[in-house]
Design brief:
Blueprint: E1 47-60, E2 63-75, E3 78-84, E4 87-92, E5 96-108, E6 113-126, E7 130-131, E8 140-141, E9 153-163, E10 168-177, E11 180-181, E12 189-190, E13 193-206, E14 209-217, E15 226-229, E16 239-241, E17 249-254, E18 260-262
Antiparallel strand pairs: 1-2, 2-5, 3-4, 5-6, 6-9, 7-8, 9-10, 10-13, 11-12, 13-14, 14-17, 15-16, 17-18
Keywords: Cell outer membrane, Ion transport, Iron, Iron transport, Membrane, Signal, TonB box, Transmembrane, Transmembrane beta strand, Transport
Subcellular location: Cell outer membrane
Membrane topology: Multi-pass membrane protein
């Protein structure tokens, strides 16, 4: 058209971005020494004896269950001696013991409703006393103290529904995590918390393509809680806040060969 000519065309870009890397392993086991001035070559390797006994059962055509008990005895446990300025110092803390139970039930029915329930309980303790730093009555860790940074129990539950004809699915999730101790002296702990989340998804084949999409809302109640702890933090800044409410989503299109995703 007059005054509106053909402005189409093409342009291409190319470049070379070389990357060179090198790694060198000083020793098989290497960590910062207690004075933070070099490598702690005195660390001994931790060794564990593991025992587990479990059973799985099919309750009916639509339900399955499992339960397992375990015991772990560790010698020369690697433990955090100190955390300061972003640098972690390790030491051998003697013997530890972990005893626990894990159980789960899963159901999937013809009407599209499904459920999952999983529970775990853990007792992780130091089996012999040791000094957390210079040996004084204040730094002596007693036998029987719990290992920090590990929740004593967790519970997960899920109730889901799937519409097979459309490929739509949705689920309500709930998760409980027990308290976490923050140091070897067991002087403080992060409180337990309960979280709920909601997810929905879609999957369907159209013209030789499989279309998948999902969206979820994590932490529906926007709870404030400590998701992790910095074990033996020297300034007693142990607690790390977890994210509040969040909304991740993704979409995926898969042809017969290859895939392209938007997230």
């Amino acid at each position: 058209m007059p005054g509106n000519g053909d402005d189409s065309g093409a342009v291409s870009y190319h470049t070379l971005t070389p990357v060179l890397g090198a790694t060198f392993r000083l020793t098989q086991d290497c960590a910062v020494s207690a004075d933070q001035a070099g490598l702690n070559f005195g660390l001994a390797a931790a060794r564990s004896d593991n025992f587990e006994l479990g059973i799985k059962a099919k309750l009916d055509e639509r339900m399955q269950a499992s339960v397992a008990a375990f015991h772990i005895a560790t010698a020369n446990e690697l433990a955090v001696l100190a955390n300061a300025g972003g640098r972690t110092v390790y030491q051998n803390a003697g013997a530890t013991r972990r005893d626990g139970i894990e159980a789960s039930v899963k159901g999937d029915w013809k009407n599209g409703i499904g459920m999952v329930l999983a529970y775990s309980w853990l007792r992780a303790v130091y089996a012999q006393p040791f000094c957390s730093g210079a040996c004084t009555p204040a730094t002596m860790v007693a036998a029987g103290n719990r290992l920090p940074g590990v929740p004593n129990q967790t519970l997960y539950g899920e109730l889901s529904w799937r519409h097979a004809a459309s490929g739509f699915s949705a689920a309500l999730e709930g998760r409980y995590s027990g308290r976490m101790l923050v140091d070897d002296l067991n002087s403080d702990a992060a409180s337990g918390y309960v979280l709920t989340s909601l997810r929905a998804g879609f999957e369907r084949s159209v013209g030789g393509w499989t279309l998948k999409s999902y969206a979820r809302i994590n932490n529906l109640a926007d709870r404030c809680y400590a998701g992790s702890v910095i074990v033996n933090e020297s300034n007693r800044r142990f607690f790390e806040p977890a994210p509040g409410r969040s909304w991740p989503a993704s979409a995926l299109a898969m042809p017969d060969k290859g895939a392209c995703a938007i997230e």
